[in-house]
Structures are given as structure tokens and as C-alpha cells.
Design brief:
alpha/beta, 3-stranded parallel β-sheet, 4 helices, flat
Length: about 120
Amino acid sequence: MPSRREFVSEASHACAGLALGAGVAAAAPAPDPQPREPGESPQRFLLIGLVGSENPTRANFPFVWSAALKTAGNDVRIELAGDATVLMRTAVADSVTPVGWPPFREALAKVVEHKIPIYV
């Protein structure tokens, strides 16, 4: 039976090999995980936003995710409650900048472009 040190050493080599293989696989386009049959209706999603301008990164998520889901052909709706309702004010939407994401107003513009309903 190998010692713990030997096992970890061998496992790290195996993980490195998997990571390199995954990098090659990631370059190819990923197949649709659940292909739809012709005539099958799209999945339906309701994304609920509860966070407002006090946490701009979390406030951005329902809008970014809904645009991505709509692009994938799904039926999407957004519901805002609590602190998230202030995001619909133009002054607030223009001033929210999530960390590591484009400004919130761009995510909101994509939602409007895709005609995703927003319930406040």
C-alpha cells in the first residue's frame, strides 16, 4: 500500500494530465447537455433578485443569467423583491458596477433587448 505522500504525488500527476486534457476539450464547442426534440417546449425559469445596490455583484446575477438562459432558447422571467426593486431606477442602474463584470446597465440593456419580463 503506498504511503500518503506517494499517493498525493501520483494523484497530482494524474490531475495535471486531466487538466491538460480538459483544456483541449474546452477549446471545442460544448454539445447541448439536453438536446430538445423538434416541437419540444423550452424550459421555463423564474429568477428572483433580492439584492440591491448594496451588493452590486450579487444584484447583477439574475440579469446576466436570464440573458444567457434566453440566448439558449429558454423561457425566462425575473422577479425583484426587497432591496432589488431600487435597481429599476435609472439613477441606481447607471451607478451600479459589479466587481469583475461590466456595468449593471449593460446587463439590464440585454434583458430589455431580449424582452425578458421583469416583475417588481
